[in-house]
C-alpha cells in the first residue's frame, strides 16, 4: 500500500503544484478573468485521465487471459519508461518550474481564451495520463485481492491535493528539489518492481520465454499471503519466486537508473528561465512596494 501511496502523492503533487502556480500567478497579476478558462482546461484534463484509466481497467476485462497479460505487461513497460523520464525531468526542472509555467502562461494570456484552456489542459493532462497509466500498472502488479492498493493511491492523491492547497495559502515551504529527489528515488525502486512484474506478464502471455526458469524460490520463508510478504509486495512489488529474466531486468534497470538519478546535476537553468525568474522577482518586489505604500 505504501508504494501506491507514494505514487499517488508524488504524481498528484506535481499536478497540484502546476495548478497552484497557474492560479496564484493569475490572482497576483490581477487577471482573475482568466481563471475560468484555466479551470475548464484542468477539468477536461482530469476527465480525460479518468476516462483513460477506466478504459484500461474495463477494456482489459473483455480480453482473453493471454491478451490481458500481453496488454498488462506491455503497458507496465510503457508506464515505467514514462515515469522514469518524468522523475528525471522533474528533478532537473523542480527549481525552475514556477518560472517555466509563468512564461507559458504569459504567452497564453496574449493569445486568448483558447490558449489558456490549452495551456492548463496540457500542463495537467500530461501528469494525469502518466498517473493513470502508472497507477493502473502498479495497482495491477501489487494487487492482493483487496482494495488496499487503490486506497493507497487515493490517499496519496488526497494528501497531494491538501499539500497543494497549503502551498497556495503559503503555509508550507519546502525544498522542492530535495523533495522530488527523495521521492523520485523511491519511485524508481517501485518502477523496477512494476517492470519486473510486466516482464512476468509477458512470460505468462508466452510472448517471452523462461517462465519455468526460477531464479530462486523463498515462498516457504516469505509466504505471499503473510503480512510481511504482503508488505513487501505492496511496497516493492516483491515476488518470492521470480524468474531469471525478471531478476535480470530488475537489476539492469534499477542499478544504473538509480545511479544516474542520484548523480549531481551538471547544468544550470537556461537563459530563458533565468530571465523569467528575474521578471517574477521584480514583479514581487513591485507588488510588495505597492502594498507597503
Tell me what the structure shows.
It contains 10 helices and no strands. The protein has 293 residues and is mainly alpha-helical.
Index terms:
10 helices, 0% strand, 293 residues, single chain, mainly alpha
Q: Averaged pLDDT, please? A: 76
Give the helix proportion (percent range): over 70%
Q: Termini, distance in Å?
A: 52 Å
**Helix and strand pattern:** HHHHHHHHHH
The DSSP helix count reads 10
Share of β-strand residues: under 5%
Structural class designation: mainly alpha
Q: Please tally the β strands and state the result.
A: 0
Low-confidence spans: 267-271
Main sheet properties = none
**What's the shape?**
elongated
Supply Rg: 21 Å
Q: Topology, pairings included?
A:
Elements: H1 2-28, H2 35-60, H3 65-93, H4 97-111, H5 113-142, H6 148-169, H7 176-204, H8 227-236, H9 244-262, H10 271-292
Concise account of the structure shown:
With 293 residues, the protein is mainly alpha-helical. Helices cover 78% and strands 0% of the residues. The chain contains ten helices and no strands.
